[in-house]
Amino acid sequence: METKNVMIVGVGGQGSLLASKLLGQVLLQQGYDVKVSEVHGMSQRGGSVVTYVRYGDRVASPVIDKGEADFIVSFELLEAARWVSFLRPGGQIVTSTQQIDPMPVVTGAAQYPENLVEKMRAAGAKVDALDCLALAKQAGSSKAVNIVLMGRLSHYFDLPQEAWQKAIEAIVPTKFLEMNKKAFELGKNA
Amino acid sequence: MKKLMLGNAAAARGLYEAGCAVVSSYPGTPSTEITEELAKYDEVYCEWAPNEKVAMEVAFGASLAGKRSFCGMKHVGLNVAADPLFTISYTGVNAGMVIAVADDAGMHSSQNEQDSRHYARASKVPMLEPSDAGEALAFAKKAYEISEQFDTPVFLKMCTRIAHSQSAVETSPRADVPAKPYEKNIGKYVMMPGNAIRRHPIVEERTRKLTEFAESSDLNRIEPGSDGSIGIITSSTSYQYVKEACGDRYPVLKLGMIWPLPEKKIRDFAAQVQRLIVVEELDPFIENHCRVLGLAVEGKSLFPPLGELSQNIVRDKLGIPRQQGPDLGEQVPARPPVMCAGCPHRGLFYTLNRNKCTVLGDIGCYTLGAVAPLAAIEMTACMGASVSAIHGFNKARGAESEHKTVAVIGDSTFMHSGMTGLANIAYNQSNSTVIILDNSITGMTGHQQNPTTGYNIKGDPAGKIDLESLCRAMGFARVRVVDPYDLDACDKAVKEELAAEEPSVIISRRPCALLKYVKHKPPLRVDPDKCVGCKSCMRIGCPAISVKDGKARVDETLCVGCGVCSQLCRVDAFESTAKEA
User: Fold this and answer.
1) pTM (2 decimals)?
2) Beta-carbon contacts of residue B353 (< 8 Å; ≥ 6 apart)
3) A65: nearest CB among B311, B326, B338
4) What is the value of ipTM here, to two decimals?
5) CA torsion angle for A114, A118, A121, A125 (degrees, to 10)?
6) Could you give the angle at the alpha carbon of B30 between the alpha carbons of B26 and B34, nearest 5°?
7) B345-509 — its CATH code?
8) Residue B278: pLDDT over 80
9) Which CATH number does the domain A4-189 belong to among 3.30.420.10, 2.40.50.140, 3.40.920.10, 1.10.274.10?
10) Most exposed: B93, B183, B438, B554, by fewest CB within 10 Å?
């Protein structure tokens, strides 16, 4: 199988590391070779962050380059737009519609761009945009946005549901398990 | 069963399996998790040292005593540890000693992108370079074998993409490695000139033997290709980019041991291919070795000497087509890192900015004090440079700068390299003001304990250095503590200490807002009827505050109720959300 590429992007502190851990776990259980590349350190402090998840028969590079991503999963609208050139032709964006102003917008040095979903579609990207924050709150915690997004992503993957459930159980603390399972379902069926 | 493991965790696993018994390191991205993961194994003694030089000397002492030892650091940390490194190369080891050094091409979290491979050649210490997590585990074990076989410390060289990428690894049980006896050996371990002169030829002979080892070791392997028009020599993450871009088309000489480099193996490989290309990040290290061998080689004529490489760069330079992604047709605003909401550094930097201080900075989260709108820091170079440089700055400019210049340095950075600079101020008497930003943790690298926190790497109670007593003992009569959430107190302290006619230390003390034990107040909100839209609160660059429709607004999911913004508001528009309850 040719290597498949999933980018998980967002703002430092939004929980992308847990999302990539979940996805990596599911894919490894399915018998794929998997590589997950993260960024630690300074950029985690509220900056733009990206995690690369790659899987297939034999994965070489730990990172995804421009024109290669099958999926971009985004916690934030502007971040989806920032990485859109990394999508391969025909690739799919799954994004939360949440907007977080970056510091240049906060200070008034820049404007938050408008109509980003339409612009990404006009550029040729397939875009699935949903309000993950609202769904996460519905599940019981605003922190579950990452699991809502993974639920939505699972909709595009031909993988058994038990695999996702098992991976969630392996990663999430017991006391938050039911809430996270609900978040996953809400994302999947959105 | 295969597990997904971070490169750093895999390196730690390899060290553990090889019987590593004593570990001393200083945190630094992207090396930190090797030591954090080692600390999870009960059989391994693990500690955070005050700096990398201390860490390496601790590891050396443990090796001398007969236990396999380890120290880990980032590339710039190796500069600090370079002094012991060059001489431990002469003494050699007793039990095996491994030094991990992690480079940061692309400077994801570093102040430069120096290439650590030069240290291996300069210090004559062998260096292994894994290309994924599996190799990080295997090479860590191999490093101990080489260390003991050749009587030398051994480098395990990581980089951001190996250290912070997960891939599948197989683990094994820990080997039972008995301690070696310690025997007094003055000729080997006391490096005074008479002995060192006799050790140097042994080091040169060792390098010759290691070069022979590099010729035959499977660490350096040739992977055949179907098209000999190009042959590629590569290592580390660059190897993965080459395989991604070229598959098995071109023959590849994959180097796992980057120093000393083989000669015959490289010559033989070069003879099989029409065009010899070296793909490596940063400096032309392998390429220059090929040139010394007299080979026609291409490398930096194709690939940049800065930043990270990638599969697309390899494709572009080798004429392999690639796909283009969608083009948005416009630039989107950048999202630089910022100080967190509630960060205790914010109030202090606001004060320094307001007092128009010249601020010499240091290495840590607080380096973000250089970013707009605070834009307070004017110099950052390396660990401890703020304290040493302010002395030089004030000696050069005298009273003109003494009353407006400050040095800012974090608690962990102060322990690392700030104390010696402070001793210099006390000894050579400059009227300098040093501000220690004591957030009770090593913040930027992800919350490691340090000698001022009172806890060790496992979170157990440990020795605690009292900063006030330390500064007083050095001869500073003026030492005061302020709460950076209290802007009036900060302003008063900075004004008074700058005005004083003697050196002083201000300790700006409040724990990092991200620490789990820190209890936060309820978030604030803005009363839109009171807010006049003056944007005074925007001057602190808090990510929780924005202005929408002419009124300030607080993001309640980010705000931790620190109240610094409310001290800037002239119309008292900030109120606690707790009032509802």
Assistant:
1) 0.96
2) B374, B375, B376, B539
3) B311
4) 0.95
5) 40
6) 60
7) 3.40.50.970
8) yes
9) 3.40.920.10
10) B183
